[in-house]
Amino acid sequence: VQLQASGGGLVQAGGSLGLSCAASRTIFSGNAMAWYRQAPGMQREKVATITTRYSTRYSDSVKGRFIISRDNTRNTIALEMNSLKPEDTAIYYCNSDRDLGSIIYWGQGTQVTVSS
Asked: 2-25 pLDDT, tens per residue?
């Protein structure tokens, strides 16, 4: 498995959910990593990134609510999602931090559904 996200589910608005992603060493090692999401009928967007030195960056839509982390010993990243909103409903994917148009392989995403 090169990329596999997990931990999604159904949660009420205002709730929290944690996602995790296992990546192959080829994809993970030495690279900044990111979480992306794609809502129904929408283009995929990048929501959070973390460098190899743990510097993080967030999209305005999730800033202050989501926290990205990484474990360099296990080639994994995580996304803690708090104060969830219905508009956070999407399939969430992990991948290396790159321009969306340059990514060919996405791996398995995980569905997050936030009910109002």
From this structure: 999 999 999 999 999 999 999 999
Cα 65 from Cα 17, distance rounded (Å): 11
Q: Is the pLDDT of residue 1 over 80?
A: no
Provide the 10 A C-beta neighbour count for residue 46.
19
CA distances from 62 to 76, 87, 104 (A): 21, 10, 25
101: confidence class by pLDDT, cuts 50, 70, 90: confident
Point out which residues pair with 78 in neighbouring strands. 20, 69
Residue 57 DSSP class: E
Residue found under tokens 């192959």:
24
CA distances from 27 to 2, 10, 69, 101 (A): 7, 29, 16, 17
